[in-house]
Amino acid sequence: MPTHLATRVAGACLLAAALTTACTDSDPHPPAAAATTTPAANRSTGTSPAATGTYTSTPVVDPYAGTPLVDRVEWTATVDGPRLMVYPTRAGRDTTFPGADLRAWQEVRGFDPAADTPGMWDQFRCHWQWARLIAPEKPSWNLEPWRPPVGYDATVDAACNPGGPER
């Protein structure tokens, strides 16, 4: 396995452990079942996926268009500094539509433009990509502006918490 891929897999495993541990005590509900999508027809030929042997798991129409992906945000103070708690809606937890992360980030910025920093965006993307999979019912995604902006890959490698663990 290439070193970069091994590092990414190890980071995902660490993230899984960290998020599962962080959420176990506060989350009395088991994770929701994974959503499934119906394969789309082959647009170029008009034939069904079964006829062509091709399937896609990416929806071709946004099932949550016009539906909020973020319910609210709340600033709180911690021993380390300020924290923005992002509360996703059910749609925000379930959508797999391409670009939904950008739409959800726009909603966060709409609630509070102060959230719009490179480090906070990377933390948000990390939660969007990984926390939704590993801890789908985590009540909030916690973003901290005091964490260093180390880039997306390093943020993922740090279990979404670069510069120290979440407390």
Structure characterization notes:
- With 167 residues, the chain is of the alpha+beta class.
- Helices cover 40% and strands 11% of the residues.
- It has 6 helices and 3 strands; from the N terminus they run H-H-E-E-H-H-H-E-H.
- It has helices at 3-24, 49-52, 90-94, 100-111, 118-134, 152-157, and strands spanning 70-77, 82-88, 141-143.
- A 3-stranded antiparallel β-sheet has the order 1-2-3.
- The longest helix has 22 residues, at 3-24.
Provide a concise account of the structure shown.
By secondary structure, the chain is an alpha+beta fold. It has six helices and three strands; from the N terminus they run ααββαααβα.
Distinctive features:
3 strands, 167 residues, alpha+beta, 6 helices, 40% helix, three-stranded antiparallel sheet
